[in-house]
Amino acid sequence: MRDFTSTFFNFDILREVWPLLAEGLWMTIALAVVSVPLAVFVGLLIALAQEARHPVLRCLIVGYVDVMRAIPPLVLLIFIFYGLPFLGLQLSEYPAAVLALVVNGSSYFAEIFRAGLESVPRGQREAARSTGLTWAQSMTYVVVPQGTRNVLPDLVSNTVELVKQTSIASAVALQELLRSAQIAQGLTYNPTPLIAAAIIYFVMFWPFVRLVSRLQNKTVTA
């Protein structure tokens, strides 16, 4: 038991590498705080644009969503960071990671919002327009709030997945939590930093997992 503890739960090593893990945790939070709101906003805009009746615009949007959902976010990040410089656009590690997360995440949020908007009865839209509201006002005050509430569990679940994907930033040497744990493991030759990172991820995401479960139960019983 002592050997097991010293290998996987060595508190002396944890105290030694904690500043490195804390630095990586803050970078993970910094990525999530910027990427998630942007991905949600862009996804909502895409879903609203799909309401347009212009066939060319709808085809472009459907193509964007399908392609971005098909490309793994890691591949997308590598293309942005290493490929865009050949086109004259060079981004540093943090903006490249944010862009990859937003582009990939927005495609999933767009589909979730689209399903939510379609779940609102057509009569709600017609009733809003009959009161004198413009299309933008009816979407803002009537359709979007109802549609968002209908897909709230999926929105929260996708947010959790997007935060998890911040670990791809290690591919461009951005020192987020997982990358910091890997560096700490290499310095100490002990897996304790990786175990600590896994526990940190669990503590971060467990409340959101429970929230998704509660929202799904409410949706079923409603």
From TrEMBL:
<feature type="transmembrane region" description="Helical">
    <location>
        <begin position="61"/>
        <end position="82"/>
    </location>
</feature>
<dbReference type="InterPro" id="IPR035906">
    <property type="entry name" value="MetI-like_sf"/>
</dbReference>
<dbReference type="Pfam" id="PF00528">
    <property type="entry name" value="BPD_transp_1"/>
</dbReference>
<keyword id="KW-1003">Cell membrane</keyword>
<feature type="transmembrane region" description="Helical">
    <location>
        <begin position="187"/>
        <end position="209"/>
    </location>
</feature>
<dbReference type="InterPro" id="IPR000515">
    <property type="entry name" value="MetI-like"/>
</dbReference>
<keyword id="KW-0472">Membrane</keyword>
<keyword id="KW-1133">Transmembrane helix</keyword>
<dbReference type="GO" id="GO:0006865">
    <property type="term" value="P:amino acid transport"/>
</dbReference>
<dbReference type="InterPro" id="IPR043429">
    <property type="entry name" value="ArtM/GltK/GlnP/TcyL/YhdX-like"/>
</dbReference>
<protein>
    <submittedName>
        <fullName>Polar amino acid transport system permease protein</fullName>
    </submittedName>
</protein>
<comment type="similarity">
    <text>Belongs to the binding-protein-dependent transport system permease family. HisMQ subfamily.</text>
</comment>
<keyword id="KW-0029">Amino-acid transport</keyword>
<keyword id="KW-0813">Transport</keyword>
<dbReference type="GO" id="GO:0022857">
    <property type="term" value="F:transmembrane transporter activity"/>
</dbReference>
<comment type="function">
    <text>Part of the binding-protein-dependent transport system for glutamine; probably responsible for the translocation of the substrate across the membrane.</text>
</comment>
<feature type="transmembrane region" description="Helical">
    <location>
        <begin position="25"/>
        <end position="49"/>
    </location>
</feature>
<keyword id="KW-0812">Transmembrane</keyword>
<feature type="domain" description="ABC transmembrane type-1">
    <location>
        <begin position="25"/>
        <end position="212"/>
    </location>
</feature>
<dbReference type="GO" id="GO:0043190">
    <property type="term" value="C:ATP-binding cassette (ABC) transporter complex"/>
</dbReference>
<dbReference type="InterPro" id="IPR010065">
    <property type="entry name" value="AA_ABC_transptr_permease_3TM"/>
</dbReference>
